[in-house]
Amino acid sequence: MWDHLVRTDPNFIADNTNGDISANSYELYKRDVEMLKELGVSIYRFSISWPRILPYGRADYINPYGIAYYNALIDELLANGITPFITIYHWDLPQNLSEQGGWLNEDLVEIFGDFARVLYENFGDRVKHWSTINEPYIHCFHGYVTAIHPPRVYLPGTGFYECGRQILLAHARAYHIYQNEFKWQGGQIGIVLNMGWGYPATNSTDDAEAVLDYFAFHLGQYMDPIFTEQGNYPQRFIDRIANKSAAQGFQISRLRPFNEQQVDYIRGSADFLALNHYTSDIVYRNASVIGMYAVPSLNDDAGFGTYKDPSWPSSEHGPGFYNLLVYIKETYNNPTIYVTENGFSSSTGLNDDGRVQYYRNYLSALSDAISAGVNVQGYCAWSLMDNFEWGLGYTQRFGLYEVNITDPNRKRTPKKSAFVYKEIIRSRVIDWEYDPDPYAQSSKAVSLQKYASLTSFVLILRTIFGIVLNN
Question: What keywords does the record list, in alphabetical order (predicted)?
Answer without folding.
Answer: Glycosidase, Hydrolase
